[in-house]
Amino acid sequence: MSPQTLSSADLSGAFADHEAVILLHDEATDLRGFIAIHNTNLGPAVGGTRIRYYKNESEALEDALRLSRAMTYKCAIAGVPFGGGKAVIMAPKHMNPREKQSLLRAYTKRLKLLDGHFYTGEDVGLSEKDIELLERYSDAIIGRPKVGDLPARWAALSVYSALEAALEEHFGSASFEGRTFGIKGLGNVGSELCGLISARGGTLVVADIDSERVRKVQKLYKVRAVPHSRIHAEAVDVFMPCALGGDLTAKTIPQLRCAIVCGAANNQLATKEDGHRLHARGILYIPDYVANAGGLLNVVAELHARGYSRTRVMAQLRKLKRSVSEIIVESRKHNVPTSDVADALAEKRFRIHT
Ligand code: NAI
Predict the structure, then answer these.
(1) What angle separates helix 57-78 from helix 310-334, to the nearest 10 degrees?
(2) Ligand 1 pocket member 187 (CB < 6 A)
(3) What is the value of pTM for the model shown?
């Protein structure tokens, strides 16, 4: 790796905050990547493993640093005794299944070095089949298909309960009837949310870059499909980003025509200032890592001393919903963005243990 690729000022700032960053390297399989451990004050690090094509090491490292940091905040807000970590594996542009298998095998060998300090599972690029392969060679795998429930279902459930809290706080009623919800991204989480919202009588406006996904949802529910490039500007009560991150930017925020933003996608705010922009416009933003933390609650439940329990996860989800209401109330009381309130609350929890 050329030192030049890692010399950006942005990265040095991000590094300062991390406990450890491990460089993954294996000559035989050409494994390259990083495991970033952001903070373990509350417990061992947890975070998914992402395997995808990156232009260079700098881009991969930045992803690992950013995502592991977000996991620390998510764990603290969700009230679980874990810290933030993330692994990224740099896949070739075109990877055949055999190449992927050998990369993952080599990766499990490195996971052993972190025995008990980092637990990981599904993220971009990893399928259920890949998780089954990983868990054959590593004890650090969570989100195991045969042990717990589907993470996407719980991510959807937590967005849904955050939505109830947001509707209640903003409109004075958690009723979905007469309200319109714009869902961007109809994958595992987005399509599940369509079902939950339509069952409560909410009106759905949807978009996906994949027209097949739109057709699938149209067959199941009454929805109005709009172009994916314009859904954020639809007149709705709630805009729900459920595709990739970075939907809320200096360019898109002035175009929003909603009262609330509450969705599943990670890293919805392009920058911290975008949280301030939403607040200045009077749009209630439910911070992404708070809204989607149900996915995390469900996977870490596998690590509980008494094993996975659906009832326990449900109780934690109810607690998370109360945190959403508290964040909104605090934001109003001090006239500060919800994103800042959530960050401060999380920091108070994970920094107190230093
Ligand atoms: P997915 O990959 O099943 O679905 C994403 C959907 O977004 C796909 O249908 C894709 O075609 C669509 N999409 C991509 N770019 C788009 C664009 N520009 N406009 C419109 N649609 C676009 O992913 P999944 O599992 O549903 O997750 C959705 C989001 O929630 C992701 O950001 C993920 O990181 C986050 N999340 C997921 C959790 C989970 O357990 N699945 C847990 C917590 C967060």
Answers:
(1) 90
(2) yes
(3) 0.91
